[in-house]
Specification:
44% helix; mainly alpha; 4 helices; 133 residues
């Protein structure tokens, strides 16, 4: 009796796995529709030449338009943009280096960053200690 139940459960599980695998979506690599020359065509694999002139590329931000009826925005002179924009990609000092410096001589921005990073590190340490217990 127990052996029959085990066999029926095995067949049920195998059937469920088979149905589950058959129901998975897969994506085709490519059907070849719309391509000339069929498989192995080397002519269309290279980079496409841009149809925009160099003048248009240097005066507009191509692809930045998000509106249906809008146009791509024009590139403005550097003086038209806010000062903080030019400092977004600057490297900031790490917490380990801020700890090595004298806290009393740090500029306000570095001090604020030190407090934020130090608090974050302390919270992570406390959480890891609680997770181990």
């Amino acid at each position: 009796m127990a052996m029959n139940q085990i066999r029926s459960w095995r067949s049920f599980i195998m059937m469920k796995e088979t149905v589950g695998k058959m129901g998975q979506r897969t994506f085709a690599a490519g059907t070849g529709k719309g391509k000339k020359g069929g498989k192995g065509g080397a002519g269309s694999d290279g980079p496409k030449a841009s149809t925009l002139s160099k003048e248009v590329k240097s005066t507009t931000v191509v692809g930045a338009n998000i509106l249906k009826d809008g146009a791509d925005p024009k590139v403005l002179p550097d003086s038209e943009y806010p000062d903080w924009l030019w400092h977004l990609l600057d490297k900031r000092t790490a917490l380990s280096e801020l700890r090595r410096k004298n806290i009393e001589t740090l500029p306000y921005e570095d001090l604020k960053r030190f407090v934020k990073l130090d608090n974050r590190a302390r919270i992570k340490d406390n959480n890891s200690v609680k997770a181990k217990n």
